[in-house]
Amino acid sequence: MIRQPAASNDDLARSVELLREVATGAGPQRLLRLYTPVPTLALTRRESLMPGYDIAVAAAERLGFTPAIRPTGGRAVAYDETCLVFDLVEREEAHADPTAFFAQAGRTIVDALRGLGVDARLGEVPGEYCPGEYSINARGAVKLVGTSQRGVRGARLLSGMLAFGSVDSFVAVLTEANAALGLEWDPRTFGSMLTEAPGVSREDVEEALAGALIA
Fold first, then answer.
1. Is pTM, for the whole model, over 0.85?
2. H helix intervals, 26-125
3. What is the mean pLDDT of the segment spanning 77-92?
4. How far is CA 137 from CA 119, 160, 174, 179, 201, in A?
5. d(C-alpha 196, C-alpha 122), whole Å
6. Which in 24, 27, 55, 136 has the greatest CB count within 10 A?
């Protein structure tokens, strides 16, 4: 496991470096990286080609978020130093099913959060940011962990984000960015541990994820 408590502007680039290290055999068969990010609006390559992208970037900068292109798929995600971001990287055989990796990781994260008393469930909440079949939600009402992935020959990366504090600033930047990109979403679906399990600390979650994902 790699813990990176200090935020860095090279966070997303480091994710790709770890993916390549594992793919080439320079790294372990499976690793988990946990870090505290800088305020970021992480957009996808596909979104960077959409009309309105420049407006979304300008909104992010005005609201104090650094716009960046993330290496995984999905849609825009906002986070800052009150969040936990994790990268799970695993060696992968040729022609492996990426959906199976997504589903298994999702179920494992759900079980880890349930062990901490969170009513965590696997599945998309209608109207959530960065919608996906393998999102982790709370109570079937709010998105708690968003996951996305990227594969290269020999390895696969799954990245995720979990908020621990107020989500008001994330809602504000995503509202403007998604409007600029012509993408619909429901701001009420952005969940946080602050409301779902206020007695659970970041350290508790880190230990639970580490124990579950790299056991």
1. yes
2. 45-48, 53-62, 98-114
3. 95
4. 8, 13, 18, 23, 18
5. 15
6. 136
